[in-house]
Amino acid sequence: xxAEANIVSSPSAIKLPSxxxxxxxxxxxxxxx
Length: 33
Hints:
Layout: H1 2-14, H2 18-32
Helix pairs in contact: 1-2
């Protein structure tokens, strides 16, 4: 669950600022889960 979501969100998160990375990562985690 969480590990898979992290892998999926990583490519997108890298392109975003750290603050946006957290928000985007949390969003993807919720969607995938």
